[in-house]
Design brief:
The chain has a single domain, classed as Alpha-Beta Plaits. 42% of the residues lie in helices and 24% in strands. The protein contains four helices and four strands; from the N terminus they run E-H-E-E-H-E-H-H. It has a four-stranded antiparallel beta sheet, with helices on one face.
């Protein structure tokens, strides 16, 4: 069953930018349709083959900010903090630190 991801793509203003993003997304497995507008991308995909996060990351690898349309557009600093928190969780895990283990040397 197809899913749809609607994204605001900050910085994707020209036809060249849209073509670049569309070409990159069309190379990904599981992409069914791609509709591009100025600053927006609408992608239908098969979730068993690809995730919405992977689609966003592919756009971000090209140098654009991809934000779900249903999310309120947030400032660049807020997005930076969200990405930092996500990176820290991947690196250090989601468990809170155990102070007893930290004090043992």
């Amino acid at each position: 069953m197809l899913k749809k991801e609607d994204l605001n793509v900050e910085g994707m203003e020209t036809e060249h930018c849209r073509s670049r993003v569309k070409a990159a997304l069309s190379q990904l497995p599981g992409i069914a349709t791609i509709n591009m507008e100025r600053g927006r991308a609408s992608v239908e995909y098969y979730p068993e083959l690809i995730s919405a996060d992977l689609i966003k990351r592919e756009i971000e690898k090209l140098g654009y900010d991809a934000i779900k349309r249903r999310e309120k557009a947030r400032g660049a600093f807020r997005r930076f903090l969200d990405r930092l928190a996500e990176s820290n969780q991947k690196t250090f895990g989601s468990e809170p630190p155990d102070c007893c283990k930290l004090n043992k040397k």
